[in-house]
Amino acid sequence: MKVLITGGAGFIGSHLAETLLKKGEEVYCIDDLSTGRLQNVQHLRHHPQFHLAVETILNESVMDRLVSECDVIYHLAAAVGVELIVKSPVETIQRNILGTDVVLRLANRYLRKVLIASTSEVYGKSEAVPFGEDDDRVLGPTTKSRWSYSSSKAIDEFLALAYHKEKNLETVIMRLFNTVGPRQTGRYGMVIPRLVQQALRGDPLTVYGDGGQVRCFTFVEDVVDAAIRLMETPAAVGQVFNIGNNQGITIAELAEKIKALTGSQSEIVYIPYEQAYEEGFEDMRIRIPDLSKAKRVIGYEPKTKLDQILVRVIDHFRNHEQETR
Ligand code: UDP
Fold first, then answer.
1. Domain limits of the chain?
2. Does CATH place domain 2-180+219-244+288-303 in 3.40.50.720?
3. Ligand 1 centroid vs 128 CA: distance in angstroms?
4. Judging by DSSP bridges, how do beta strands 248-250 and 214-216 pair with one another?
């Protein structure tokens, strides 16, 4: 089978490429290296079944060729990271909405099945946890740029569901909760790589707000397994699935855990949101998925516990010291 991964040099895309190659698939990746990195796929570049195009998914002629040549598409290319989104809202909106439009239009032209990576951000600031796929969304005003991310990914979901309903295109939506693992960079805000790097450098661990906000962290390999299963399961077509972990932890507790696991002497500092992001920034207080649908349809169960995830991330940064500097 020939598989196209948009965002294939990204954190999740590169792990997906690796797993699909191990399964014997021929993997085509397209990545404009905006947040993806060549070093993420360096170890795959000489694999005879791995192909990479360094190009934006907005280039329709390149995408037309790739989509026509591949059997299925994993659409992962998107603007990622709250810090990046707050700083570059125009790019976020364009990249997410126009990019998905290109992918779905071409998938429909060649009748290719598409899995769309969406995000738990679509639930917004609802506190009605655990979030079920059909729950209401609670969003802030358009004057707060964070909400553009949630809205842009929701448009992607609407469009994918519309293509399925109206044109019978096979689409599946995977709503990802906080995903972590080796190769994720802290550059765009993600808390675990940031705190681990700070701890290893001996710098203060920066906890934003009062540290009482709750997140659940999923290991990237659990997400990759779920993505492949969603793609392979006919009953998943035309549906939305939460993929994550449902064991919550506060960010303050997370910082303590990282300090202990790294043996770091760093202090933990609390930074107000307006200083970390921008004036009036709104965070999600709590984010926990209801995983019962994914369990029922694809037998999904996150296997990796937070401590194991942290050990893997710490080992990664210890072995790639240059990324920690
Ligand atoms: N966060 C933090 N310190 C950091 C980076 C992030 O306390 O250096 C917080 C952030 O404000 C949020 C949580 O950690 O409440 C998770 O942030 P991340 O950007 O990883 O993902 P999000 O859940 O916001 O999409």
1. 2-180+219-244+288-303
2. yes
3. 20
4. antiparallel
